[in-house]
Amino acid sequence: MLAASFLGLVFDGVELGLMPIAALSVSKSLLGDAYSATAGGDWFARFTAALMLGAAVGGVALGNLGDRIGRARAMGVSILSYSVFAVLGAWVQTVEQMLLLRFFVGLGVGGMWPNGMALVAENWPGASKPLVSGVMSAGLNAGILLLSQLARQWPITPDSWRWLFVLAGVPAALGVIVLLALPESPAWLASRNTAKKASAPLRDLFRPDLLRVTLSAIVISAIPMVGAWAASKWMIPWSDKVAGPANAEYKAATQGWWALGATLGSLAGAQLAGWMGRRNSYLWISAGASALTIAMFQLTAPLAPGFHAVVFTQGLVATLFFGWLALYLPELFPVSVRATGSGLAYNSGRFGTAVGVMGAGVLFSALGGDYPRVGTICAMIYALGIVAIWLVKEPRKAEL
Fold it and tell me: Looking at beta carbons, which pairs linking 158-166 to residues 24 or more positions away fall under 8 Å?
């Protein structure tokens, strides 16, 4: 179960990292003479927003499916969804076709996280939860790191990008194996066997006893999600623009350094939450992510000697959030609504992200394609976490 869930998240990360590294090349190829630097940034925002919107819908819908038909089966559906729609991108002829496919890829991307996390959380003893939650969360960024290393060996250019989408379809084989062979969560089976009647998990999340938990979980999940995509990810097309066609592998190197830091950060986030406490750790991560993102856009630049060092550090600190969420969100909800609750909280942030990224795209155009100014302004999203964390309670030791 751990291996299948981890691999599902690794390939999830490949899908998340695909467009940041390929968007400008795809746009140049599909737009032809209509392409400009500003149009490239605008379409990067649109592709990202479509993926986030799809992930938000998929996280809620497929998270709910996991509470109804089982974590393993819903996870298999999620993997097949993001793989099949990704591979279709190899044959698109217009940016509009790619935009639609990114939405459908997002459905599977969003469904993978809540079902994989719920499956693992229900099959490991409490003493192992910080480590296992960290490993699982690191899987997403390990996928981005894997993709970046492939792109360094085979640079993505306007003349050579379709192979990347063919590669993104390979995980469909894992989806079939999960559907046919992966055992179901014993805790989920027990909850279904003891239930007196069919439940409506999504509606249950807004019961009076769970309403505050649900709303606060949505807020603390949204902040790092919006920050990551509306602020941090602009560094990759920025690197692509500055390095230019003569240094096509530089953007992959930038994503690789970020993903290496992010993999370590995702792994450490759960450990930090266990050591410092849920509330204190989130507060300090928020402050650090905001400061480092501003530094990345204002104190250095692509091709500068220290740029990748700052990118690595920003990736490490900003993704501590996701290891933190992997540990904390499943703790908040009872088994009967765990996948639905985690999926709603984690992926509701993606609705905000879709809006935030499109807003950042409008800002990008208004500022004449100024990547540093857009990234700096959007970095303040992280600072909201310093205030928002006081909405949630610090769990008692008996609850952990």
Answer: 158/25, 158/26, 158/28, 158/29, 159/29, 161/22, 161/25, 161/26, 161/29, 162/89, 162/90, 162/91, 163/90, 164/18, 164/22, 165/18, 165/86, 165/87, 165/88, 165/89, 165/90, 166/87, 166/90
The token duo for 47 is 């592709």
N- to C-terminal Cα separation, the chain: 22
Mean pLDDT of the chain: 87
Amino acid 170: pLDDT: 94
d(CA 243, CA 237): 10
For the chain, how long is the longest CA-to-CA vector?
65
The 3-state secondary structure of 248-287 reads CCHHHHHHHHHHHHHHHHHHHHHHHHHHHCHHHHHHHHHH
The pTM (predicted TM-score) of the whole model is 0.81
Per-residue burial over 199-208, b = 16 or more CB atoms within 10 Å of its CB, e = otherwise = bebbebbeee
Give me 236's structure tokens: 């990759």
What pLDDT shows up at residue 395? Answer: 57
Give the Cα separation of 296 and 308 in Å (integer): 9
What 8-state DSSP symbol labels residue 157?
Answer: B
Please give the angle made by the CA atoms of 106, 110 and 116, to the nearest 5 degrees.
140
For residue 207, report the phi and psi dihedrals to the nearest 5 degrees: -65, 155
Domains and CATH numbers, the chain: 2-399 (1.20.1250.20)
Give the residues of the chain that fall short of pLDDT 70.
Answer: 125-130, 133, 193-201, 393-400
The pLDDT value recorded for residue 159 is 92
**pLDDT for the residue numbered 302:** 95
In angstroms, the CA 30 to CA 320 distance is: 36
Reference 6, options 138, 105, 182, 147; nearest CA is: 138
- Check if the beta carbon of residue 335 is closer than 8 Å to that of residue 188: yes
